[in-house]
Write a structure and sequence with these properties.
five-stranded parallel β-sheet; globular
């Protein structure tokens, strides 16, 4: 399977870098082809400029404005999105990637605005991997937007055909080395079984 692995963390020596290492090792062991999209390392521009916003509802122009990333998304059979949860949401960089890539002519057909149609039905698997600085109950109290994005929002674009998984380490700021190690092992196993 061809996996587009969207990684969103600015530090290459962070716990997220360790998670990415284990996840990629698991995917490689399972024999998958991985396209690593490191949004920070590739200097992705998340800004939906005035010009891009004007082009948004023109499918051809919207697609052309994002063509390099569109090609990578369309070549994928699966998506893995790894990111920290900041202020109970995904980083602005990842939110900008969603804003730019999940629009008309790319992820949906809006030729009939009353009946939007999903265009990513080739995506068979979606997995989210995230960390939170706070406890799970606090994320639930805030409706846990990152979990909802992965488990509810993104599957719509596949016609709800994609198998969806979400792996979260809550209250990471107080997580012991043992707990972090167990999370790394869990992520690697999940990727080996992807």
């Amino acid at each position: 399977m061809r996996v587009l692995y969207v990684y969103c963390h600015p530090l290459d020596d962070s716990f997220h870098a360790a998670i990415r290492h284990e996840a990629l090792a698991g995917l490689a062991l399972a024999g998958h082809t991985v396209d690593l999209l490191d949004l920070y390392a590739e200097d992705f521009d998340p800004v939906l400029t005035a010009e891009r916003r004007r082009d948004y509802h023109d499918p051809a122009r919207n697609r052309a404005n994002n063509q390099a990333h569109v090609d990578r998304l369309m070549a994928a059979d699966a998506l893995v999105l790894q990111f920290p949860t900041w202020s109970f949401g995904p980083p602005a960089m990842l939110k900008g990637w969603f804003d730019r890539l999940f629009g008309p002519g790319i992820a949906m057909d809006l030729s009939d605005p009353a009946h939007a149609k999903p265009l990513l039905q080739h995506i068979r698997h979606i997995t989210g991997i995230s960390t939170y600085g706070r406890q799970r109950w606090k994320a639930i109290a805030m409706a846990d937007p990152p979990r909802r994005i992965i488990k509810r929002y993104l599957p719509w674009f596949t016609g709800f055909k994609a198998k969806v998984r979400y792996h979260a380490l809550y209250h990471m700021n107080t997580a012991t080395a043992d707990r972090r190690g167990r999370f790394l092992a869990r992520v690697r196993r999940a990727m080996e079984q992807f």
